[in-house]
Amino acid sequence: MQPLNSKYTIKDLERLSGVKAHTIRIWEQRYNLFNPDRTESNIRQYNDHDVKLLLNISLLVNHGFKISHVARWSLPEISKKVSEITRNSGDLDEYHQIQVDNLIMAMLGFDDALFDSTLKACCEKVGFELTMLNVVIPFLQKVGMMWRTGESTVVQEHFMTNLIRKKLLVEIDSVPASKDPSAEVYLLFLPEGELHEIGLLFSKYLLKARGKRIIYLGQNVPREDLRIYCKEHRPQYLLTFFTAAYTSDSINEYLQDLTTWIGNTRLLVAGMQVHAPEVQLPEGVVFISSVYDLINFSEGKSLRSITGTD
User: CATH topology for 176-298?
Assistant: First the structure.
């Protein structure tokens, strides 16, 4: 599949690669590494190929290769050296960053083969959970930044989230369901209008892997249907996310309504919209500020982000 050939300014390249704009200009002028288009006002415009090349060159330079040598290498030679560094890296933080960059390149090039090989290598090295925590989630955070600044498209984002969703479903299915009748029951759902499912699916994986029983309702669950289910079955916990463009008043109204009829069921809420200072969590509601909060909560550890009576 061919890339969309998005256009990037030199400042976009600086944010994506960590290489200063001044250095990019020097590499471009001295070594002819890039040949950007120019706008009518003479502003450089780079493409997806330039971004991928810069990410690879930056990695090589950071590993001690001289830019004057790298500039003489062919694209296959550069790719081969990057692959060698990736395989042999003993620093996990560095290894994770390399894989995040690989996912960025997979997104820009609509390269599902690169996505698959990156995830496979990560999972073999550190396991699926740590791959999600240290590679996929940082990648999604970077994509969010890119989308807000116009450096990625909705199509590119959907391409990657669907690949990640597919991988999550496979891993969730590989975890045996709890047969313990005393295991805690978590009901996972997204409110009406909420369609971003990756966080909820990963939560399902984490909770299932820790022996919890999961009732998964997924996206866009009508409030009345949720009320009927909770009244009849009384799960111990509800977990939901707010990431769509809700107003603080609508979130407050929704949470207040929810807590009036869930009884002793504990409500856990996550998502960037809950961070708004105008959002007032009802007493006893647990704010999950990060995936590590969910892990700690499910393992019975204390959270600084719990509000209400705790």
Answer: Rossmann fold (3.40.50)
